């Protein structure tokens, strides 16, 4: 693997020397940009393997900043990680790199175990050997499972009950990370966030997928009944939460980063149809809906109690309407940031017919 930038900042003095894994992906790229622009006294190294859902176009605005460096690499490669930690003198890690698409996990679960579990273990082991001062592990609300009744919420102490291979791999990674807290007193923080949306998100996820389909005058694919509900958080809000946790979070703690915006997938599709196609009648809206077979298991909802991170001083600021408008504007100009973006506009990932069979009208 080779770095895409050649500048060396090893001898310069910075207050923090931060490694962000998966920093060319969705949330990671926003956190990288925020760190680089807001904190010129921090040195930010972005490590990303440039998988299908990553794009260096997400980072063009900071690519020449003197406190930023991109390195292409895989968290599963221990020797290369050791070299990076030593050469770049890393003292802080924000670990975003992961396989994240639930549908993919049903038919390629071993890839999720390799990246999310083994890769995390390799990374934290190297970070421990390098005596890193803070390690933030990015997890997901899906580790809780989706059986929560209406009106109840998950707190950080709720039991983990993952119901799909992706969620199981993230839960396993959490246990590995926490073992370093117990065994080695290693300074770890875990975060679990609701569904995040906004610019830079690969269109395999529901909001950019629906936007891409409707912009092409095609129908939104609804898994099952579409009544499964999700809580959505705009990406700049979650990026601010990571900055707050980086500076004010407590070692050994877990923080939920949640949203009060809960909406069913069916209602989400209808809202986007009204926005993009201008349809107002139920009959007109239905013309842009296509109900397909559900995934093997589809959690009902993931509401979380975020009072712990809010006590640090964080609050989401972007309204649902504002966030959707910003997202629509970005994808209208940047949908082709990924070479395979068009391939993502299918009911299920290409090649997973062994799990999810034919569509149903």
UniProtKB/TrEMBL annotation:
Signal peptide: none annotated. GO terms for molecular function: dTDP-glucose 4,6-dehydratase activity. It comes from the Eukaryota. GO terms for biological process: nucleotide-sugar metabolic process. Residues 19-327 form the NAD(P)-binding domain. Pfam families: GDP_Man_Dehyd. Its cofactor is NAD(+). Its EC number is 4.2.1.46. Keywords: Lyase, NAD. It catalyses: dTDP-alpha-D-glucose = dTDP-4-dehydro-6-deoxy-alpha-D-glucose + H2O. Belongs to the NAD(P)-dependent epimerase/dehydratase family. dTDP-glucose dehydratase subfamily. This is dTDP-D-glucose 4,6-dehydratase. The lineage of its organism: Eukaryota, Metazoa, Cnidaria, Anthozoa, Hexacorallia.
């Amino acid at each position: 693997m080779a770095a895409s930038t050649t500048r060396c900042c090893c001898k310069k003095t910075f207050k923090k020397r931060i490694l962000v894994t998966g920093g060319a992906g969705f949330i990671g790229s926003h956190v990288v940009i925020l760190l680089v622009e807001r904190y010129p006294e921090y040195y930010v190294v972005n490590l990303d393997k440039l998988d299908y859902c990553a794009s260096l176009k997400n980072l063009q605005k900071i690519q020449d900043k003197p406190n930023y460096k991109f390195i292409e690499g895989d968290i599963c490669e221990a020797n290369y990680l050791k070299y990076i930690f030593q050469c770049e003198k890393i003292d802080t890690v924000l670990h975003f790199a992961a396989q994240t698409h639930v549908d993919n996990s049903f038919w390629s679960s071993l890839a999720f175990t390799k990246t999310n579990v083994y890769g995390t273990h390799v990374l934290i082991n190297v970070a421990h050997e390098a005596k890193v001062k803070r390690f933030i592990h990015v997890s997901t609300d899906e580790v809780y499972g989706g059986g929560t009744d209406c009106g109840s919420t998950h707190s950080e102490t709720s039991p983990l009950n993952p119901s799909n291979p992706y969620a199981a791999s993230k839960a396993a990674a959490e246990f590995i990370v926490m073992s370093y807290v117990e065994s080695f007193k290693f300074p770890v923080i875990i975060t679990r966030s609701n569904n995040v949306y906004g610019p830079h998100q690969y269109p395999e996820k529901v909001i950019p997928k629906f936007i891409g389909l409707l912009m092409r005058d095609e129908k939104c694919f609804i898994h099952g009944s579409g009544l499964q509900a999700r809580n959505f958080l705009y990406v700049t809000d979650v990026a601010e939460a990571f900055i707050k946790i980086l500076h004010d979070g407590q070692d050994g703690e877990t923080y939920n980063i949640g949203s009060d915006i809960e909406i069913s997938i069916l209602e989400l599709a209808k809202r986007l149809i009204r926005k993009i196609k201008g349809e107002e009648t139920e009959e007109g809206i239905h013309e842009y809906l296509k109900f397909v077979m559900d995934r093997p298991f589809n959690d009902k909802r993931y509401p979380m109690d975020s009072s712990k991170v809010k006590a640090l001083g964080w609050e989401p600021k972007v309204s649902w309407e504002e966030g959707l408008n910003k997202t629509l504007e970005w994808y209208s100009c940047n949908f082709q940031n990924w070479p395979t973006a068009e391939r993502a506009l299918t009911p299920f990932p290409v090649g997973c017919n062994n799990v999810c069979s034919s569509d149903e009208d």
